[in-house]
Amino acid sequence: MRPSRRAPDELRAVSLERGVVKYAEGSCMVKFGDTHVLVTATLEERLPPWLKGQGRGWVTAEYGMLPRATLERTRREAAAGKQGGRTVEIQRLIGRSLRAAVDLEALGERQITIDCDVIQADGGTRTASITGAWVALADCIAWMKSRNMFKKDTADKVLRTNIAAISCGIYQGTPVLDLDYAEDSEADTDANFVMTGDGRIIEIQGTAEKEPFTQDELMKLMALAQQGVGKLVDLQKMAVA
User: Fold this and answer.
1) Percentage above 90 pLDDT, the chain
2) Is 125 annotated as a binding residue?
3) 60 pairs with which residues across the strands?
4) Is 86 annotated as a binding residue?
5) Is 75 annotated for ligand binding?
6) Which terms does the record give in the GO molecular function aspect (predicted)?
7) In this structure, which of 71, 87, 147, 233 has its CB flanked by the most CB atoms within 10 Å?
8) Does residue 209 register a pLDDT over 90?
9) Bridge pairing between strands 58-65 and 111-120
């Protein structure tokens, strides 16, 4: 029995509320159970210096957790004077994932910055961030379309596919979908899957926390992830409809 009493293939309650921030070109409040992340997308008419003059844009991300997103207060990274390794790794993952969804040439010489701020953490903050970030990104691109910021022949090509992410793991010998903290902290195996709307893989992060896992177990986790991502993509489509 899972601590949450969910079935092995059952997601937590998921909600994606778009347009929640007045000033951002795109935004989404994403909730995976008790994990809540505020995501904003900001359009900037600038590029990293190494991209200037190449005729394509860029999508990047920043990630952070508020001090009381967790059971005990976590010191702000700004107060420490640097970002932690986990933060850097997660924001790079978010950026890589979203760039797979965008035709950077069709975007033009502009940058979209995605900010993911974890308000409350109960496991799966990176997967929730990626899933909500796609909605904020779609919101931003729709904002640009409404202002005729793309060439007519490329407007519908900018956002190529949906992107969503979900965690899976082996908990007490059973492959399960969408781990909360109680499971994540005790799981034998913990994995994160980032996929496109049609089930193609962008990234897999998998670690044996206790017992090494087999190829057969990996395939079972991937099957669960594909099922979960399919449901998340349906929710994304409803959110931006």
Assistant:
1) 91
2) yes
3) 113
4) yes
5) no
6) tRNA nucleotidyltransferase activity
7) 233
8) no
9) parallel
